[in-house]
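re: the backbone from monday

yeah here it is again, tokenized this time
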């Protein structure tokens, strides 16, 4: 493993890691356009599985969604054979989008620009005026539709989630996830779900800053006043962090232990802004939930490299898709879930608790801002590094959540794919 990104495409000085250690992360990685271009090739179009959508969102033949793999636009659609297909949302002719809507139903896809037509598997099946008009013009006789079409992706399904990859070498999805991460996904997605709400959030920061935030169990009760004040998540609670061997996937979880919290003064002793008795909820029913898991876990945040998140916060279930949009902008797609067999009362609880997360959530609002604080703060600091040393230098699982082990795990997976 070298310490350099390789030569910059623009001839500039490349970004350097100062050592093999994962405890010092160059700030330039969040701001260098050549790094971002390399990420698209080596990570998003490399040996990874990218989350696309839920199977439930394309349950019937012809149903499709448009999404992205990194910055590459993609169509994902179910065909009459029941299989799911994914291909670039790019006409092979002049590069226009094939599908313009976010979702819908289609027998086929026709580009609005010159009416080239594709079937649900991404095959080019029609070229308008292929034989010309009145014997003049048209495509040459050597033109073969079978040889032209957008790139197709491999598709994998797991627990109702649809993933795709441009790589033929990425391991099967079960091996990619590993037993521990797969088991934690199955814990939440153990029965049919349906979408009960959506948000798309624009973040003023590099995509990696948000992924680090998701993996950072250390910040949650320090940044989020709501978490600590209303005792939903404290580092003193029972819980832990799971990091898979690749480093790229993680789970952070905690349990409410009221007896242990009653005598805990650790937050007050630290004089933390997030621990305050000045705040009350006018409607405390937002925190009134119901027990639906027998393991006592009230908060579980899970990530799959590079940009998928599954959350269970109390009874609020949601998926998050992290999409880079240039060096300093990220799109975060939130999909709120309920189980198909929810009672009316349970569905009301989930909808009410959705106020905890999302762009203006009582908890997640700060996450949408703090990445921008970092992006602005590192301007002019290309030669400096972030310190990621909480909990030591390793990337293993931990019974403590006052650690950055899963953040270091992210960089372990990142550096392997980027050949750094």
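seq for it, each position gets an aa:
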């Amino acid at each position: 493993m070298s310490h350099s990104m390789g030569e910059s495409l623009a001839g500039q000085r490349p970004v350097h890691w100062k050592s093999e250690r994962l405890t010092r992360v160059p700030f330039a990685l969040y701001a260098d356009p050549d790094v971002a271009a390399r990420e698209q090739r080596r990570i998003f179009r490399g040996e990874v599985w990218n989350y696309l959508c839920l199977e439930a969102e394309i349950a019937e033949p012809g149903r499709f969604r448009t999404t992205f793999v990194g910055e590459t636009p993609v169509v994902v659609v179910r065909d009459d054979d029941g299989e799911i297909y994914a291909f670039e949302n790019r006409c092979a002719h002049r590069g226009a989008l094939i599908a313009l809507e976010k979702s819908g139903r289609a027998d086929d896809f026709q580009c609005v620009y010159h009416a080239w037509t594709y079937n649900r598997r991404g095959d080019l099946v029609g070229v308008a005026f292929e034989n010309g008009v009145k014997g003049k013009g048209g495509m040459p006789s050597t033109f073969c539709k079978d040889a032209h079409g957008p790139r197709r992706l491999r598709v994998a399904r797991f627990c109702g989630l649809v993933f795709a990859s441009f790589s033929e070498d990425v391991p099967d999805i079960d091996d990619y996830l590993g037993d521990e991460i797969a088991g934690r996904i199955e814990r939440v997605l153990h029965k049919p779900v349906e979408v009960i709400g959506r948000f798309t959030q624009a973040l003023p920061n590099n995509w990696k800053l948000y992924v680090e935030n998701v993996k950072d169990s250390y910040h949650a009760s320090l940044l989020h006043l709501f978490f600590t004040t209303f005792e939903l998540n404290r580092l003193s609670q029972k819980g832990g962090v799971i990091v898979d061997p690749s480093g790229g996937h993680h789970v952070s979880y905690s349990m409410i232990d009221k007896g242990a919290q009653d005598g805990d003064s650790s937050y007050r002793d630290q004089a933390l802004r997030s621990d305050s008795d000045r705040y009350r909820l006018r409607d405390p029913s937002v925190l009134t939930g119901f027990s639906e898991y027998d393991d006592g876990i009230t908060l579980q945040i899970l990530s799959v490299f590079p940009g998928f998140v599954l959350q269970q916060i109390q009874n609020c279930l949601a998926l998050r898709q992290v999409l880079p949009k240039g060096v300093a902008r990220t799109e975060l797609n939130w999909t709120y879930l309920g189980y198909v067999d929810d009672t009316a009362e349970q569905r009301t609880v989930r909808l009410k608790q959705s106020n905890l997360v999302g762009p203006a959530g009582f908890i997640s609002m700060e996450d949408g801002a703090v990445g921008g604080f970092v992006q602005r703060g590192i301007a002019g600091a290309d030669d400096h590094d972030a310190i990621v040393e909480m909990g030591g230098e390793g990337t293993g699982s931990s019974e403590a959540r006052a650690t950055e082990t899963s953040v270091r795990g992210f960089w372990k997976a990142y550096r392997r794919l980027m050949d750094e």
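Confidence is low (pLDDT under 50) at residues 1-11. The CA atoms of residues 228 and 308 lie 26 Å apart.
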